[in-house]
Amino acid sequence: MKPVAAGNALLSCFTVGAAAAAASVPSFDHDLRIPTSYESAVLGRRILALTPLGTLATVFPHAKESDGIAPLERRPPGLDGLPYSLMEYIADCEEDGLGNPTILAITIGTTFKNAAAGSNVSLAVQWTPPHPPAKRIEGKKTKKAKKRSWLSYLGWGDDVKEGHHKHGRHHHDYHSAALPYSAANLPRFSLLGHLEPIEGGDDRDGHVASCYVKSHPDAKYWLPGNRIHQAHFVRLVVDQVYWVGGFGDRAFIGWIPVEEWQRVTREEWQNARLPGEKKGWKEWSVAGDL
Ligand SMILES: *[C@@H]1O[C@H](CO)[C@@H](O)[C@H](O)[C@H]1NC(C)=O
């Protein structure tokens, strides 16, 4: 494979989507140009709108702020100032269109305790194509997984013996968990900022709740006012945006000015397309294959 040709082809992956969206860019050579930060913001806003999960990072407070929490939870000593990140449900539910993610904060969760103690946050979001590529850069086919008991994942279940017998523990194919595409080549970003309550957002029949439940039907059980946990809708106020669009020879990598992130319109991100949104895409795609 000729890397140069492949590079140009892949660049077009990103620019096709961006070009559709960025009507403000009158003309460009879609084979040769790295997307601008604004075009990347358009793609990022589409990713935010289409992606239900992110990884939210906070920092553990210093001793004074965590007084009372630590003994209650049997927290180990030495957490002060350490970062902590975990998967969270995210959505894009605010009507102001500024691209501040919507999160249902469960007060008892460590992330939200850290935020309540004053931590800033960072939310990592990655683009996961809904379809595997028809043709991928490299890699082998993996066997279809058999339905297994959770215990077998720990090496405790009955079906483990069979597996060991067949394949032998030491010859386990760790590559079976490989992604069906080159994830390094796909866009991802980190939104840096802080959490704040959405005023009036906790109305279970309101816009925020109904939008959120559309993305996360199971979350209807822990909406604000549920009997088990204290929950509140919060927004991640985006203060900074760091973007990695893919390989650096064809994608923008760097800080996106927050004004650009906020300026992207719904129409722009709705018209954009990301790699792998359509079936039959190829990782070394040429323009129009998306
Ligand atoms: C959070 O970030 C802001 C900058 O946006 C900074 O001024 C503030 O000190 C940070 N808060 C903490 C607790 O580190």
From TrEMBL:
Q: Identify the residues that the record assigns to the CREG-like beta-barrel domain, covering every copy.
A: 36-261
Name any one Pfam family assigned in the record. CREG_beta-barrel
Keyword Nucleotidyltransferase in record: no
Keyword annotations for this protein, in alphabetical order, are: Signal
**InterPro entries referenced in this protein's UniProt entry, alphabetically:** CREG_beta-barrel, Split_barrel_FMN-bd
- Annotated signal peptide: 1-20
Q: Which SUPFAM superfamilies match?
A: FMN-binding split barrel
The organism's place on the tree of life at top rank: Eukaryota
The record's listing under PANTHER family reads:
ADL397C-AP, CHROMOSOME 8, WHOLE GENOME SHOTGUN SEQUENCE
In Swiss-Prot or TrEMBL terms, this protein is called Pyridoxamine 5'-phosphate oxidase-domain-containing protein
